Amino acid sequence: MKTSIKIGSAWGIPIELHITFILLMIAVFVVTYPDLYFFALTLFLFVFVVVHELSHSLVAKHYKIRVRKILLYPIGGVSEIEEIPENPRVEWRMAIAGPLSSIVIGLVFLGVNYVVPTEMAGTLYGSLALDLAILNIFLGAFNLIPAFPMDGGRVFRALLAERMKFSDATRYAAIIGRFFGIGMVFVGLFYNFVLSIIGVFIYIGASEEAEATVVSTSMAGIRVKDVMYPEAAVVKPETTLTEALEVMFKARYHDILIEKDGAFHGIVTWNEIMKVKPEQRSELRVEQMPMKQISVFSDESILEAYKIMTREKIDLVPVVEKAEPAKVIGVVTNESVSYAIEKSKTPR
């Protein structure tokens, strides 16, 4: 079930709205109607969160890091980038860009509020400028708190990573994030329950980020040849789509490798075949379908294979040798990645 809706794009970056954000907007409208001032503030907050996340994404694009999309939640936004920058200086610049943009916008609205004529200061116009200033400055300052998964936590992790291992830096930043989350939960119980909810999200986010980083760091040391399947099911270019599907079912693959004269020719995905009407599959050959020309070397990290599978939205990647890049010697599947993840969690 799709839980988000694409509402547009900026600089080639898709922007999606999570369904919970839509539900929040409906709830705010119903509760505040007919006085829609607070609803208007919520709409402005939506715009400012988009700008905040775009700031992260544009810095990432500047450093040639692919941004998959921006996803907006009720408690903020997330810029889904291809990978965490290896250079700590790049990470802290990406992380700090969002809060700085929010603070700058807030200062601009403070300036607008300052130049508002005295007779308008108490009007809706004057109140709106001041409230938008406070909203943005709070958004920027809150995100600068040095606790995962806040932007400030990522800045803190990047600064630590310049002096220690990346995994250790993540662990320390996550510990602070957990403590901060627990603190917000307790404070919220006595003052504002919303703080408790945000605290729970921060605690969970810090824990998940720490675990994901430890796993990916450990996976980086596992080679493709350690977890690949040595036998790969292949078909010839003249194979019909119906025949290719039969091979997929027997091999339990969702995609199929094409070999021509013993050389790797490409991959046809399950999704591409499913676009063809069933009655036409016995007439079309796999060589007539769009193919993906991707592969990994046997001595590469399984993490690199996983990145390719995620980027290409594919369930398997052929394994080749550097000396013979056209000869398939095995295949990496989702099961291979799952095995690598379990292996990475095993103490050595």
Number of helices: 12
User: Uncertain spans, ≥5 residues at pLDDT below 50?
Assistant: none
Shape descriptor? globular
Strand arrangement within the widest β-sheet reads: 1-2-3-4
What is the H-and-E element order? Answer: EEHHEEHHHHHHEHEEHEHEEH
**Structural category:** alpha/beta
- The total domain count is 3
Q: Tally of extended strands?
A: 10
Bin the strand percentage.
15-25%
What is the average of the pLDDT values? 80
End-to-end CA span = 39 Å
Oligomeric state of this protein: single chain
**Any idea what the radius of gyration is?**
25 Å
Note the main sheet: 4 strands, mixed
Helix content bin: 55-70%
Give a verbal description of the structure:
- This protein is of the alpha/beta class.
- The protein has three domains: about 140 residues, no CATH class; about 60 residues; about 120 residues, CBS-domain.
- Helix content is about 55%, strand content about 15%.
- The protein has a four-stranded mixed sheet. The chain has a three-stranded mixed sheet with strand order 5-6-7. Strands 8-9-10 form a three-stranded mixed sheet.
- Helix 2 runs antiparallel to helix 3 and helix 2 crosses helix 4.
- The radius of gyration is 25 Å and the shape is globular.
- The chain starts with a strand and ends with a helix.
- The mean pLDDT is about 80.
